[in-house]
Here is the input.
Amino acid sequence: MSNKISSPQPLGPISVGNVVSAALRIYRDRFSVYYKQAFIANLWAIVPFYGWAKFFAISGLLSRLAYQEALASPETVSEARRNINPRLCTFLEAPILVGLTVALTMIIVAIPAGIIVSIINTFDSPVFNFISILLMGLWFISSYIWIFSRISLSEVPIAVENNNSATEVISRSWELTKSSVGRIMWIFSIAFLITLPITAIAIALNLFLQFNLPESIYPLVNLILSLTVNPLTLPIWQTIKGVTYYDLRSRKEGIDLESGES
Here is the structure.
């Protein structure tokens, strides 16, 4: 398969819808390459620690490939891997730090939410109880989406720039997503809706197999199902992240359309 992209020029700043459509076009044109890498990533995910690092590194590789496609400077997998492999430790450290950051944020969010719910519940009213549960749910969901939008691109700078520490890449994501949270929320919401049917079918099939296969066979079949389905959705998210990262750099740093440098 050719490694050239259909567009001879960088995409430049693009709309929310076009970020997703550009990412899906890249994925469609490189489906066999991206699916193979995602399949390998999911195999590595079975292995603790080193395998997890490889999983996140290959995820970053997918984002780098999409980023370079958007930049009209496509790379082969082997070319991209030369930039990815030296940063293997960072690919493991960054998601751990991201997870800790999200967890700490949600704990902080829970404190005022708990106080407010306790006050409302003193009225001992079913209506007030329902309202308190609804408000708490909305508060948690909006808080999670906000923090996720700010640091969810953390693996991309590891793959495409020279940021070598977990704190640096989280800071980089935080910097680029500033004032763009709403835009990123829309992009990720669309990505979620795109992957939802695949995920729903996989869950339904998994439940069917769980209730219709012998217990001795089900774990193996479930593993095969996961290794088959997960590689379909991982490239969608990673290509969208790669194109989103390119778009944010185009808008905020004015990437030079010829050299690809700020």
Notes: The chain has one domain: 16-253. The CA atoms of residues 249 and 255 lie 6 Å apart. Residues 16-253 form one domain.
